[in-house]
């Protein structure tokens, strides 16, 4: 805003206020008397320009953006630690420490054992996304008697780096567009997105609303059937049927408050069953559905699910540059496709449906592999020369690629 208020411009204006009868040349008494004050004034304009930019959310540097965010009760998401499933040949004590590569892991909660042995959660001691791709043999830092096998097997909850400045800025600006309140969609998105391991969320309110409420009320034929069946039943099945039938008869079996939450993990892959279970318990515990014991309001019955992966098989008709063949370029082509699919996954929450476009695949391969591939034609996705549009809760994953 004050980029024109330079030292030279200010000095020229200041000297212009002095009579031309006086010597105003460089080195003169007038020049030497005015110049220091003008230099300080120029610094003041620089500081004023910074204050002006730091005042607004759209332009504030990170330090001041955090202060602006606090006005909305919002803070950057801190870095979190990745949690894995680890398998051992014996039971190991809680707190046992292991290393894998250049990172250390600590055993926390015990999981159900499987055919490979004892299973535990293992948390990376270093916060951030660096550990998400780790897997392999765990080396004990402290001696564990009888240990012969220790493997880091599966990522349960992805670690996350501290929230990027521009993502935080976008989140603050978005908060002005829709107010989170009382279990509305913005409220669900804000709270669930803030949980560890969650990258994006879609909310489907009243997701079983295609069922007519009147269809749940039993008619005379249903009542006759119920009377005949319940007379010969006893135990838990009879109790359950009685509860359901009574609720339906008294018009208490309604469709209001049903919410379906679909989640994408922070590494832009489908979430693990462990992460889904943690979110479900935090939002609306299954055993207390609709009772408001999680963050969901009383009366909201919430179902948490993970985004689905849709396999995309790709057939390419490639013209290679001299000296290149498909085995030599395959890894490069796969990397380009994976990057494109990852970008689509990152856009999943903001789109109704993801479309995989042949033109994008071809142009990206030609751009990134220009030294190896000179032309592409006849590209097929899942056997068809057509773009593929996924359903609302799916992201693409690379299947077979033939060149």
Count of folded domains: 5
Tally the beta strands. Answer: 15
Cα gyration radius (Å): 31 Å
Low-confidence stretches: none
Spell the H/E element sequence. Answer: HHHEEEEEEEHHEHHEHEEHEHEEE
How would you characterize this protein structure?
- With 403 residues, the chain is of the alpha+beta class.
- It folds into five domains: 7-55, no CATH class; 83-157, no CATH class; 178-208 and 256-306; 213-249, no CATH class; 308-402, no CATH class.
- It is 33% helix and 25% strand.
- It has ten helices and 15 strands.
- The protein has helices at 7-16, 29-55, 62-70, 165-175, 185-193, 220-230, 236-249, 273-283, 326-346, 358-368, and strands spanning 83-88, 97-100, 103-114, 117-124, 136-137, 139-140, 150-157, 198-205, 258-265, 301-306, 308-320, 355-356, 373-381, 388-389, 394-402.
- A seven-stranded antiparallel β-sheet has the order 5-7-1-4-3-2-6.
- A hairpin with a 2-residue loop joins strand 2 (97-100) and strand 3.
- The longest helix has 27 residues, at 29-55.
- The protein starts with 6 loop residues before the first helix and ends with a strand.
